Amino acid sequence: MSKVIVSSLYDSDVFKMACRQFDVAADAISLPEAIRDRTKYPRRCLCVALPVRRDDGTVTVYEGYRVQHNLSTGPSKGGIRFHQNVTIGEVAALSMWMSWKCSLVGLPYGGAKGGVIVNPSQLSENELERLSRRYMQEMISVLGPDIDIAAPDVGTNEKIMGWMMDTYSNHVGHNEPAVVTGKPIALGGSQGRREATGAGVAYLVKKYLEDMKIPIKKSTVAIQGFGNVGSETALALAQFGAKIIAISDYTGGIYDAKGIDIQKALAYLQYAKTLKDYHLGESITNEQLLELKCTVLVPAALERVIHEKNAKKLRCQILAEAANGPTTNGADRLIEQRGDIQIIPDILCNSGGVVVSYFEWLQNRANYYWTRDEVIEKLYAILDKAKDSVEAQKRKFKFSRRLAALTLGIGRVAEAKQSRGLFP
User: Fold this and answer.
1) Percent with pLDDT over 70 in the chain
2) How far apart are alpha carbons 388 and 378 in whole angstroms?
3) Any residues with CB less than 8 A from the CB of 48 and at least 6 apart, and which?
4) Which listed residue (40, 77, 101, 113) is catalytic?
């Protein structure tokens, strides 16, 4: 039997939630004790101070993190989050989910995640560039195309990835686009990467609606979170024929039973930056959006927004988890007891982003680039295969869909660790 001394370093509600998910899945597949803790806990983390010169000449020191959960299945992979509420526990949980996600969809990656405690909206573009470059400079010892590959997440974007790639390239003395994904096309980014996560969410929603014999053109969709993932999900679902009846960001949301024109909403965001005061619809709160009657509910913002207090009030038929960890363990149990909501779990639902990040990395290494149609076709093929494997696991063991996805992902990581043995 293995013995582990657990550090309090990652102590947080979201990390405990990720660990509880692991424990349930490990029990379900009778994962041997000797391999459990090696599979469960992050391999390593780095915490850095990031002094940044502000436009007024003062210096502010920010705190940044990088957690690499698993390096046994390949270089680690994961986004970098700029948000005022980032904690190392949150980053560790996200790195765990990324490990299971990469394993589930068959990518040769381990999971990682990064974060900086900052509200990026309070920085000028020059300050944001200095912070982004400083973060990469401090992380160079643990990042690299064969070690750990970064990507955008909440509060970051392709421009920030471009700055980070340039910083790394200047350090190593040659152009190295494969150190980050989600870059601008001009710097080696992949066609289809910007919309990949949302396109994947929409495709899986479409496939599950077909399984449920619900015509997508008769479906209604509410989306909490209207950043990159939420907006691209909305666009893709609207193109499939679904009616988007509600969208929101951190300032609140809008509702229109007749359907929201997503292009107009995006045009408004171009200059207003938030949905606050958007007049083409009825104003609602984020909490109200989650409880709307709809065919599909898409939480596409942050973790733990669906909890025991609101799980009983959901009125959707499909819960498509475009965000990471949006449903707490307690809410998960309540929804399972209800039996009237189909969950597309996060590690399957939002995996399109890391799949196309993998495509971008491959294209950078080969210096050969694909068309958007090729990218999307390959993405859909991988999502189909992952969905089929989850459904087969669900049927075989009579698991919930989340447990089926987790057991597949965790089992494959554990098998890789077992096969490699313990060094030294």
Assistant:
1) 98
2) 16
3) 63, 64, 65, 135, 138, 139
4) 113
Q: Which H or E run includes 46? A: strand 44-53
Q: Cα–Cα distance between 420 and 383 in angstroms, integer?
A: 28
Looking at the predicted structure, is the pLDDT value of residue 2 above 50? Answer: no
Can you read off the two tokens belonging to residue 83? 């948000």
Distances from the Cα of 87 to the Cα of 14, 84, 220, 405, angstroms: 10, 9, 35, 26
What is the C-alpha separation between 359 and 371, in angstroms, rounded? 11
The 10s digit of each residue's pLDDT in 196-220 is: 999 999 999 999 999 999 999 999 9
- Average pLDDT value over all residues in the chain: 96
183 is catalytic: no
Whether the CB-CB separation of 183 and 158 falls below 8 Å is answered with: yes
pLDDT of res. 219? 98
CB-based contacts of 260, cutoff 8 Å, min separation 6: 244, 245, 246, 247, 254, 280, 281
d(CA 95, CA 16): 13
* Mean pLDDT value across residues 214-227: 97
Bridge partners, residue 81, by sequence: 115
254 forms beta bridges with 247, 283
Q: 3 pLDDT exceeds 70?
A: no
Tell me if the pTM is above 0.90.
yes
1 pLDDT more than 50: no
Token pair recorded at residue 104: 């589930």
| Structural domains of the chain in order of their starting residue, each with its CATH number | 13-179 (3.40.50.10860), 196-349 (3.40.50.720)
Question: At which residue do the structure tokens 């149990």 appear?
Answer: 333
